[in-house]
Design brief:
Layout: E1 13-15, H1 24-30, H2 40-57, E2 63-66, H3 70-81, E3 87-91, H4 95-106, E4 110-114, H5 135-144, E5 150-156, E6 158-159, E7 164-165, H6 168-177, E8 183-187, E9 206-210, E10 222-226, H7 228-236, H8 246-253, H9 264-280, H10 282-303, E11 319-323, H11 330-341, E12 343-345, E13 356-360, H12 367-383, H13 392-401
This protein binds pyridoxal-5'-phosphate (PLP).
Pyridoxal-5'-phosphate (PLP) binds at residues 18, 69-71, 96, 156, 160, 187, 189-190, 210, 219.
Length: 402
């Protein structure tokens, strides 16, 4: 018997902080026929996207592109630069920092997790998950490490589980002030191409990123941006690697090719994405995300709900975490909103499960799609019987219409 097609009419509102909505232009570009990845046309495509993606990372050095999700590029960063038993200093900003640390353990490294201690009195949530990296804690720890056992410092630039960013330039300064030789590795999986990010200027050795956030592509492609110091470290690093090894990829990339079969159609998508982002200009792209974030925060404030980020200086331009009132299960609320309005919101991850929902404001969205998403949240909260202080939709209309 034929199943009824029960797709709701209209576009689904994918308001999670990645995968983000993919523009039609990119979907169309990806629908072109797959070409020979050893042929001449492919080399031109490869050279174009490699040069373009380096501009997005703001680097003069190689960027390695993997046909893998961001998790693969996390592994590549560690496996190419470190040796079994190496000490790694990681900072607990949230769920993704915790997952990267778990990966480091599984790879045979010795990660040390540092964090702001304690919980916030008002919310009972971990203090460190509500604020960005405190670079002075990193500096203090590195100063104690007089034997230079710590080989790398790993931080997350835009913690997608919390909606908090971290100042990477401050982390660089902390490492330099401590006169410590550790590599600096940064996860900007959800920051790149939405939040300002400067690989070279901030002295980052490896930046990890992914396709499905600010680049507005489907999931399945990820990146390592390198520094000369990281490339030198890869010559002596002893962790086993083969598929992830930078050397052969960087070598073949010089002519626009890969040592294995690359994901050709995602590369078409990347080429289109780069045309869009670089055509608009990165400063405008960053400003657009900042503005969306401010409009969404105006709504959350009018509802009278706390944002998960407790430090206004480091609110994420990419997403906003909204803490639900005590006794309200944020996942039940998300389910109701999804069922009634066909709107997907991000779930609370790890220690935040059931305590918050996340509104993504990145990718193919604009003022009006955000207004609709905020209306979905507000209607859903009213249906769930949550007493709101005021109308977030009204506040956002004033912000976006002003
Ligand atoms: N790091 C951050 C900050 C992320 O947001 C994500 C995914 O959302 C990951 C790592 C893991 O990436 P992926 O799910 O693409 O493997």
């Amino acid at each position: 018997m034929l199943e009824l097609d029960i797709h709701p009419s209209g576009r689904h509102f994918l308001q999670i902080p990645g995968p983000s909505p993919v523009p039609d232009r990119i979907l169309r570009a990806m629908s072109l026929p797959t070409i020979d990845h050893r042929g001449p046309e492919f080399g031109a495509l490869g050279l174009k996207v490699l040069a373009g993606i380096a501009r997005v990372f703001q680097t003069q050095h190689p960027v390695v592109i993997y046909p893998a999700s961001g998790t693969g590029a996390w592994e590549a960063a560690l496996a190419n630069t470190l040796s079994p038993g190496d000490a790694v200093l990681m900072y607990e900003t949230g769920h993704f920092a915790s997952l990267w640390k778990k990966m480091a353990e599984r790879l045979g490294l010795e990660p040390e997790f540092i964090a702001l201690p304690g919980t916030d009195e008002s919310t009972g949530l971990p203090a460190s998950w509500r604020r960005g990296v405190q670079a002075d804690l990193i500096e203090q720890r590195l100063r104690q490490d007089t034997q230079h056992r710590i080989k790398a410092v790993c931080v997350v630039h835009n913690e997608t589980s919390t909606g908090v960013t971290s100042r990477i330039a401050d982390v660089r300064r902390a490492i330099d002030s401590a006169k410590h030789p550790a590599l600096l590795m940064v996860d900007s999986i959800s920051g790149l191409a939405s939040a300002d990010y400067r690989h070279d200027e901030w002295g980052v050795d490896v930046t990890v990123s992914g396709s499905q956030k600010g680049l507005m592509l489907p999931p399945g492609m990820s990146f390592n941006a390198l520094s000369p110091k990281a490339m030198a470290a890869s010559k002596t690093a002893k962790l086993p690697r083969s598929f992830w090894a930078w050397d052969e990829i960087v070598e073949m990339n010089r002519t626009g090719y890969w040592p294995y079969t690359p994901n050709t159609n995602l590369l078409y998508g990347l080429s289109e994405s780069l045309d869009m982002l670089l055509g608009e200009g990165l400063p405008r792209v960053f400003a657009r995300h900042q503005r969306w974030a401010e409009g969404v925060r105006a709504a959350v404030q009018a509802w009278g709900l706390p944002t998960q980020c407790a430090d206004p200086e480091v609110h994420s331009p990419v997403l906003t975490g909204v803490i639900t009132p005590k006794g309200v299960d944020a996942d039940a609320l998300r389910k109701l909103i999804h069922e009634r309005f066909d709107l997907s919101l991000g779930t609370g991850l790890g220690k935040l499960k059931g305590r918050m929902f996340r509104i993504g404001h990145l990718g193919d969205c604009n003022d009006l799609t955000l207004m609709a998403a905020l209306a979905g949240c507000e209607m859903g909260m009213k249906l769930a019987g949550i007493a709101l202080a005021g109308s977030g939709v009204q506040a956002a209309m004033e912000f976006f219409g002003g």
